[in-house]
Amino acid sequence: xxxxxxxxxxxxxSNYIFDSCSPALAISKPINLRFCGLRKEAFGFSGLTxxxxxxxxxxxxGHSKKVSASAESNGSxxxxxxxxxxxxxxxxxxxGAALHAVEKGLKTAIIEGDVVGGTCVNRGCxxxxxxLAVSGKMRELQSEHHMKALGLQVSxxxxxxxxxxxxxxxxxxxxxxxxxxxxxxxGVDILTGVGTIVGPQKVKYGKVGFPDNIVTAKNIIxxxxxxxxxxxxxxxxxxxxxxxxxxxxxxxxxxxxxIVGSGYIGLEFSDVYTALxxxxxxxxxxDQLMPGFDPEIGKLAQRVLINPRKIDYHTGVFATKITPAxxxxxxxxxxxxxxxxxxxxxxxxxxxxxxxxxxxFTNGLGxxxxxxxxxxxxxxxxxxxxxxDTNGNLVPHLYCIGDANGKMxxxxxxxxxxxxxVEQVTGRDHVLNHLSIPAACFTHPEISMVGLTEPQxxxxxxxxxxxxxxxxxxxxxxxxxxxxxEGEGLAKLIYRPDNGEILGVHIFGLxxxxxxxEASNAIALGxxxxxxxxxxxxxxxxxxxxxELFKSAKVSF
Length: 557
Known about the structure:
Shape: globular
Radius of gyration: 23 Å
Structural class: alpha/beta
CATH topology of the largest domain: FAD/NAD(P)-binding domain
CATH class of the largest domain: Alpha Beta
CATH superfamily of the largest domain: FAD/NAD(P)-binding domain
Mean pLDDT: 86
Distance between the termini: 35 Å
Number of strands: 26
Number of helices: 16
Low-confidence stretches: 1-74
C-alpha cells in the first residue's frame, strides 16, 4: 500500500509475512507494498549487497547514542573512525540518509553488493510505474466511450510485450546509472560487499572469494529492507508461479492469472494484466478485497477497479498449495476456508502471482555481536530509530530504518526515517510523525491516503473522548476532472470538529497520488482546517478537490 516499491530480493532474512494494510495500520502492522521516495537531486543512490550465499542488502543509517553494557561486552569501540556514518544497504532509505549526511558535512560510506538503487529502482517502484504508464495509456485507447466523449477516433490499440518490458527495464537502468554517478559526485564512498556488524561501531564487508575489510564509523544505519514473502506450500518457479520480482520483467502475459493477495501489489498488477488482456482471479484471505483501505474508499474502488473488469475473486480463503504448470498441465491452486480450514475449491489457471506480503531482510546482519535479537524478523527500535538490545538498552550509535524495523513499510518512509536519524547524529533531536506519511496505489484511477481511516479515527475518538467529523467531495464537481472526462472519484476528510485537527485524508480519483501531499504536509506541520481552508488554489485544477474538501469541513470555532 507503493506505488509498487519493493525491497531487496535474495534469501529472506526472515520468514515473517505482512498483510496489505493502510499506511495508518502499517505503523503497527506493515503493509505489503513499498513506495518510492527518491529525491530528485539525489538521482544517485547505492544499491543492494549480496553475501556469499546470495543474500541482498539495503543501505541504512547510523546514529550516536549511549553504549549499552551488552554492546561493550562485544569489544571496545574504536578510538578513531574511518567514517562519520556507514550505511548498510543502498535502497531508498539508505540513499536518503546518505544525501542528508553529505549535506550535513558527514564523511559517509554506503555498503552495496548488488546493483545500485535497491528493489525500488530495480524491482519495484520504478519498473512498476513504467508498466502502469502503459496500462493507463492502453485503458484510454481501448475505451471507446471515453475517446468518443473527447471527440477522438482511434483504431484498435495493441502492444508489443517485449517493447513494454524493455520500457520498464530501460527506465530502471537509466535511473540506476544516474543514481550511481550522482552518489559518487556527492562524495559518498560506495563500498562493495556484504555488510555485517562485528562489534560496536565496526562493520566488515567483502565479496565472495576475497578477504573481508573492516571499517569503523561513529554511527551505523541498518537499511536492509525486505523481500517478497512466499507462504509454505507455494512452489515458485519464476515462470508460471511468480513473485512481483518476476512479474516486473513481463516475460509473458498469461490469459488467466490468479493473484494471491488484494493489497497494493495485487491491485496494481491487476491493473497492468487486465489492460494487457489477461483475466484475473484474486485470492484474498480476509472477508473483503482491499482490506487495508478506508472502507468507503475501498467500496468505491472495487466498483470501479474490479467489478467492470475481467476480474473475479475468492475471499475468506487461503491458498494452501500452488503447483507450477508443467508437462502440459496448468497451475493448480488448492483453496481452504480461512476460518474452518476445510477444503473450499481447486483452481486451474495459466499463472499465479504471489502478492502475500513482504518479509524483513535481517538475517546475517551480525546483530548477535551487539546483543540484538529480532522480533518476528524486525530489528527492534525506539521512536528515534535507535536499535534496542535484548536487555532493553539502546545499542550505541546503531540505528535501523525502513522495512527492516517494520514501523511503516514504505520506501519514502525509510528515506524520511534516515533523514531523521542524520538530524539526530548531527545534534538536532527529531522524531518522525508516521501518521503524516502518505501512501498511494497507482491504479487507474489512483488511490491515496494519509493518517487514519474512519474506523481507526472513531476508535481513537472513543478512547480519548472527542467527536469525529467527516467531509467528502466528488471529482464530478471538479472542472479539470470533467474536462479530462475523469469525473469518477471521491475525496474524504476525517477530522476533529472541536479543534480542526486533520486525522486522515483518503482520495480515489485522477492523480490522487499527487493530490494527497497537501493533506500530508498539513498533518506534518500541524496545520488546522480553520487555517488551511483559506489557502488559494489555481482554477481550474484538480487541487480544488482538496480546496473544496477543507472548506466543507465544519469546525466548531
